[in-house]
Design brief:
Helix content is 57%, strand content 3%. The strands form 2 sheets. A two-stranded antiparallel sheet has the order 1-2. A two-stranded parallel sheet has the order 3-4. It contains 11 helices and 4 strands; from the N terminus they run βββαβαααααααααα.
């Protein structure tokens, strides 16, 4: 399956470290937007090449470039120039972070929707939030930082911290909701232990936690705009997350109203519906995430077929690319 033709040495290659950058566009017609016409000393690999061939040639020749589509599919980020050979040395950290995210969010979305009697705001999966969502996404973020991918670093680091926070909030040890219990009788009933479950039914806790979800939605909205430079599936992930966090923030505020006034049954009913809606949006997020995870794993293992992710990097062009095109036209 891999191309066995020997690669020709490129100008500047050598053992003295004076070779070109890993992703080198200096000899291409990049400024004109024509990625296919390369000089005789610079070979370009695009989506028509088998993935294994592309990756093997990247490992063996410093001046070979891959297309924006293939790079974006592997790293969920527009291609960028980096010095050194870190992308040849280390594995791709993207699928590791994705699987941590998916194995945390997918069960949680089913629980929020109450499938088969599930509930408890996901308290049954605290371990998954800490060791899949938190640990694997933080490791993935560090890996993306090492290979020079800023956008995935911020995304994975943000959600890794989110899962750690969510898991800690659900643990009684951190007393996140128990701190809102002020009734001496309720405190005494819990024998002074942290994490009094009565705190989950206080207006103070629910109204306060809603603000965190609101600003997580704001972060996802920023990621949504940035994802216009990646692919359609990644865009769908952030779009559904913005909707999910909006629904969940509204649900907590309605719970605050319901716990403040037990007679406010409308607020309680609204909260229940909003939680289900939030779970439905996160389920869409999960399905999109599984799709993009599958696409990356197929590419990584050189399968003879691939699935599309809807590349957007050629539609929303970067500022540096527009500048290069303008300079080329002049």
């Amino acid at each position: 399956m891999n191309d066995s033709r020997p690669l020709q040495p490129t100008a500047g290659d050598g053992e003295n470290g004076g070779g070109p950058l890993e992703k080198d566009f200096s000899n291409s017609n990049y400024a004109g937007g024509n990625y296919g016409n390369m000089s005789s000393h610079h070979e370009h690999l695009d989506g028509d090449h088998p993935t294994g061939t592309a990756l093997e040639r990247i490992r063996t020749a410093g001046s070979i470039s891959i297309s924006p589509e293939l790079f974006e599919k592997l790293y969920l980020s527009p291609e960028n120039k980096v010095s050194g050979e870190l992308r040849k040395t280390f594995g791709n950290p993207t699928p590791l972070a994705l699987i941590g995210f998916l194995l945390s969010l997918s069960p949680l979305s089913c629980q929020l929707m109450g499938w088969r009697g599930a509930g408890g705001n996901g308290a049954s999966d605290i371990g998954a939030y800490l060791f899949f969502g938190g640990l694997l996404m933080i490791i993935g973020a560090v890996g993306e930082w090492i290979v020079g991918n800023t956008f995935p670093t911020v995304v994975f680091g943000t959600f890794g911290a989110f899962w750690l926070q969510f898991g800690a909030t659900l643990q009684p040890f951190y007393n996140a909701y128990g701190a809102y219990v002020t009734d001496p009788e309720a405190v005494a009933a819990n024998m002074g232990n942290p994490g009094n479950p009565v705190g989950q039914m206080t207006p103070g806790f629910n109204n306060s936690y809603a603000f965190f979800l609101l600003f997580m939605g704001l972060v996802c909205f920023i990621f949504l705009i940035c994802s216009l430079r990646t692919n359609a599936v990644f865009f769908l992930i952030f779009f559904s997350l913005v909707c999910a966090f909006a629904c969940l923030a509204a649900a907590y505020w309605n719970l605050g109203l319901a716990y403040e006034n037990a007679a406010n049954t409308m607020a309680a009913a609204r909260a229940a519906k909003l939680v289900v809606a939030g779970g439905a949006f996160t389920f869409v997020t999960s399905m999109a995430g599984w799709w993009i995870f599958f696409a990356i794993m197929l590419a990584s293992l050189d399968f003879p077929f691939s699935i599309p992710v809807g590349d957007l990097s050629h539609i929303v062009k970067g500022a540096s690319q527009k500048k290069a095109v303008k300079e080329h036209d002049v």
